[in-house]
Amino acid sequence: MELWINEIQTNNLHFSIRAKDILFAGNSQYQEIILADTDEFGYLLILDNVLQTCAFDEFIYHEMITHIPVFTHPNPKKVLIVGGGDGGTAREVLRHLDIEEIKMVEIDKLVIDVCKKYIPEHSSALINEPNEPRFILEICDGFKYLKETTNYYDIIIVDCSDPIGPGEGLFSKDFYKAIYKALKPDGLFVQQTESPFYYQKLIKRLYSDLEDIFPITRIFLASIPLYQGCLHSFTIGSKKYDPLDFENIFKRVPTDFKFKYYNKEIHQNAFSLPNFFKKILKE
């Protein structure tokens, strides 16, 4: 019998991937967690029937959500990751040796435990956490943590799941206000903000919310085969530094960093939005 992973993307569109094996299937107090092994995507993490990350293209997502904001800020010392239970974002942030403190707050410990056990190449930062003095992992509600934090972080990276279940509150205006309060006067944040094809109303609303809060709001795109429509958006809210300040940003990109996806041209071109998407944001 063949085993297929099926994500319902819309009422009229399903995305199916044949699995070789199910490495883990279980429920935490927050969500259903499945880790599968596939031929097309390698290991595949699914939360509440939504595809999250995989071996095939995870480097695209994690390099883009990390290095664009880190290089945009001229001197980041303290970074917060909200979510990111698979560990890929923490792995990429830790590559920046000038960052002194990296804290990750994840609500679901079981996601972390599953990823550490079954995909150690992906979650190396979580496995090495006891031996990395710059990295602090805390199991808690990220929204609640931000409400209790003021003027502390240079960068906040919101590596959250989709706006359902435990991730729903992380797409609200109150959440963005809490982020603004937790950032230093020149701080900035980035969040994954779904597909520009299938989440247009959500993106338009959160873009408007962020423009009300942050002096600088920018959206950038990356092509990620696993995700709906293969085109994924990320949104930056910044108090001072503009990710379009390419001349100064590119001076900070080291020549000895080995990226699989990110480079200076990708950084610049990622902010070039197609006309249909520009129209949606302006309507």
Based on the model shown, name its key terms.
five-stranded antiparallel β-sheet; 283 residues; 30% helix; seven-stranded mixed β-sheet; alpha/beta
Report the major sheet: 7 strands, mixed
CA-to-CA gap between the ends?
Answer: 49 Å
Spans where pLDDT lies below 50 across 5 or more residues: none
Structural class: alpha/beta
Q: Please estimate the helix content.
A: 25-40%
Order of helices and strands: EEEEEHEHEHHEHEHEHEEHHH
Count of individual beta strands: 12
Q: What is the number of helices?
A: 10
Spatial order of the strands forming the largest sheet: 8-7-6-9-10-12-11
- Roughly what is the average pLDDT, rounded to an integer? 96
Rg, alpha carbons:
18 Å
Tell me the strand percentage band: 25-35%
Shape: globular
Report on the architecture of this protein.
With 283 residues, this protein is α/β, with parallel strands linked by helices. Helix content is 30%, strand content 32%. The protein is built from 10 helices and 12 strands. It has helices spanning 58-72, 88-93, 109-118, 124-127, 142-147, 173-182, 200-213, 246-250, 264-270, 275-282; strands spanning 3-10, 13-27, 32-38, 42-47, 50-54, 78-83, 101-106, 135-139, 153-159, 183-192, 216-223, 231-238. The longest helix has 15 residues, at 58-72. The N and C termini lie far apart (49 Å).
